[in-house]
Automatic annotation (TrEMBL):
GO terms for molecular function: oxidoreductase activity, acting on NAD(P)H. It holds the Pfam family Pyr_redox_2. It comes from Streptomyces luteolifulvus. The lineage of its organism: Bacteria, Bacillati, Actinomycetota, Actinomycetes, Kitasatosporales. Its cofactor is FAD. One of its GO terms (cellular component) is cytoplasm. InterPro entries: FAD-oxidoreductase/Apoptosis, FAD/NAD-bd_sf, FAD/NAD-binding_dom, FAD/NAD-linked_Rdtase_dimer_sf. This is NAD(P)/FAD-dependent oxidoreductase. Keywords: FAD, Flavoprotein, Oxidoreductase. Residues 5-291 form the FAD/NAD(P)-binding domain.
Length: 385
C-alpha cells in the first residue's frame, strides 16, 4: 500500500529521528509529529548531569530542528488509536494516517508516596525545579541506585550537597556487575556519598513532599530533598483498546512493526531477543538506532534490514566516564584487557567461548564505534536475557 500520510507520535529523540529518516529515505508524503510537550525536542541526557549542575543552559539542550516540511504539533497529546480506521485521536480532533510511528517513550516510575508529590527527573521541567530547589537544600536522599540515581547523586555532590543513595541492591551491580559496580561505588564514597543498601522495601515518609525514607528496622533516612530514581514506565495508556499487543510496552517484530503500517521505537518498544524473551531497551542510542530501523521498515517492509541493537550505553558520574557495549548484567567475570581499574583508563571484556559479549571502558578514550566492533553484534544479541 502506498503511504501518503505518516503520523509520528512522540516529541523526543525517537520521534525526531524517525521523521528525519523518513525524509532521508525519500518519503515525500506528509509527516505530522504529535508531541504533548510544550517545547521542541531536546536531549534528556544532560538533565541529570551538566544541566542539573548548571554547566549547560536549557537552550543548549534543544535538538536540531525538524525539516520545514514536517508538521510538528506541540502540546498535542495522542489520546487514542483506531487501527482499522487509521486515526490517532487527540483533543483537537482525529489525525488520519497511512503509516504510524509510535515513539511515546517512558515516564518516571515512582516509589508510590501515598500523598503524591514525589520528586522525579524525566523531563526539562523536572530538572528545572530540581535545580531551583537544590539552591536551598543542604541534604539530598536519592532512592534508586541505577545509572540515573547515581548521576543525580554525583551532580548533587558536585553542588556541595550532603548526599545519600538508598537501594535494595548495591548500586549499579545489576547493570555493570560486581567489579565495575564496586569501582563506581568506591568513587561515590570517595566523593562523600553515603550508600545504604536496604533489606526490603523503601517507603517514603513525610507530608505531601517526602522528607525521608523508611527502610528496614523502622530506620528513617531524612533529607531536605528526596528524589526517586527507580526506573521508568512506558507511555502506552493512549493505546489501550487499540488491539496492539501491549505488555510492558508496544510489542514489535524484528522490523519494529506492531502492524504492517505501524512501527514503534525507543523507550516504548518491546522487542524479542533471539532467546525469545522480550524487553524494552531504554537508552539514547537505542532510541536513535531503533527509530531509523522502524522508519525504514515502514517504507520498505521486509526489504529493510531487521533491527540489530548495538547495545551501546554510557554514563558519567563521580569523575568516571563509563562506556559499555553488550547487554547490561551482573553475569560473568571480566578480564582487564587494558589499563587498571584502580587507576583508569581501563578496558574490561567479558568473554564466552573466546568471543567478547560485553566490554566496558572507564575513562578510556576509545571511540564508541571502535568499542562496538569489539563485540560482534550477533553475539551480543545471543546472550540477551
Ligand atoms: C535525566 C536523564 C538522563 C539520561 N541519561 C542517559 C545517558 O547518559 N545515556 C543514555 O543512553 N540514556 C540516557 N537517558 C535515557 C534517554 O534519554 C532515553 O532512553 C531517551 O530519551 C528515549 O527516547 P524516546 O524518544 O524513546 O522517549 P522519550 O525521551 O521518553 O520521549 C517520549 C516523547 O513522547 C511524548 N509523549 C508521551 N506520550 C505522548 C502522547 N500520548 N502523545 C504525544 N506525545 C507523547 C513525551 O512527552 C516525550 O516527548 C537519560 C534519561 C533521563 C531522563
Amino acid at each position: 500500500m502506498k503511504l501518503n500520510r505518516i503520523v509520528v507520535v512522540g516529541g523526543s529523540i525517537a520521534a525526531l529521528t524517525a521523521a528525519e529518516t523518513l525524509r532521508i529515505e525519500g518519503f515525500d508524503g506528509s509527516i505530522t509529529v504529535l508531541s504533548d510537550e510544550k517545547v521542541p525536542p531536546y536531549t534528556r541526557v544532560p538533565l541529570s548531569k551538566s544541566a542539573l549542575a548548571g554547566r549547560e543552559l536549557e537552550d543548549d539542550l534543544t535538538l536540531p530542528a525538524m525539516s520545514d516540511d514536517v508538521d510538528l504539533r506541540l502540546h498535542t497529546r495522542a489520546e487514542g488509536l483506531d487501527v482499522h480506521r487509521r486515526l490517532v485521536h487527540t483533543k483537537e480532533g482525529s489525525v488520519p494516517f497511512d503509516g504510524l510511528v509510535i515513539a511515546t517513550g517512558a515516564r518516571a516510575r515512582t516509589v508510590g508516596h501515598r500523598r503524591g508529590g514525589e520528586r522525579v527527573l524525566r523531563d526539562i521541567e523536572h530538572s528545572r525545579s530540581l535545580r531551583a530547589d537544590l539552591a536551598t537544600a543542604s541534604s539530598v536522599l536519592v532512592v534508586g541506585g541505577g545509572f540515573l540515581g547515581m548521576e543525580i547523586a554525583s551532580t548533587c555532590r558536585e553542588l556541595g550537597k550532603d548526599v545519600t543513595v538508598v537501594d535494595r541492591e548495591p548500586p549499579l551491580e545489576r547493570l555493570l556487575g560486581p567489579l565495575v559496580g564496586a569501582r563506581i561505588r568506591d568513587a561515590a564514597r570517595m566523593a562523600g556519598v553515603r550508600i545504604r543498601v536496604a533489606a526490603g522495601d523503601v517507603e517514603l515518609v513525610g507530608g505531601k513532599t517526602p522528607s525521608g525514607a523508611r527502610i528496614a528496622n523502622d530506620e528513617v533516612l531524612e533529607a531536605d530533598m528526596v528524589v526517586s530514581a527507580v526506573g521508568d514506565l512506558p507511555n502506552i495508556e493512549w493505546l489501550l483498546g487499540s488491539g496492539l499487543r501491549l505488555n510492558g510496552g508496544v510489542h514489535v517484530d524484528a522490523w519494529c512493526r506492531a502492524r504492517p503500517n505501524i512501527v514503534a521505537a525507543g523507550d516504548v518498544a518491546v522487542q524479542a531477543g533471539p532467546d525469545g524473551s522480550s524487553r524494552r531497551t531504554p537508552s539514547w542510542t537505542n532510541a536513535i538506532e531503533q527509530a531509523r530501523a522502524a522508519a525504514q521498515a515502514l517504507l520498505r517492509a521486509e526489504n529493510a534490514a531487521p533491527y540489530r541493537p548495538s547495545h551501546y550505553y554510557w554514563t558519567e558520574q563521580f569523575g568516571l566516564d563509563v562506556k559499555m557495549v553488550g547487554p547490561p548484567g551482573s553475569d560473568g567475570t571480566p578480564t582487564i584487557s587494558e589499563g587498571s581499574l584502580d587507576c583508569p583508563p581501563a578496558l574490561l571484556e567479558w568473554h564466552t567461548s573466546g568471543t567478547a559479549y560485553r566490554v566496558v571502558a572507564l575513562n578510556h578514550g576509545i571511540r564508541p564505534a571502535k568499542l562496538k566492533r569489539l563485540v560482534p553484534a550477533h553475539h551480543s544479541r545471543s546472550v540477551l536475557r
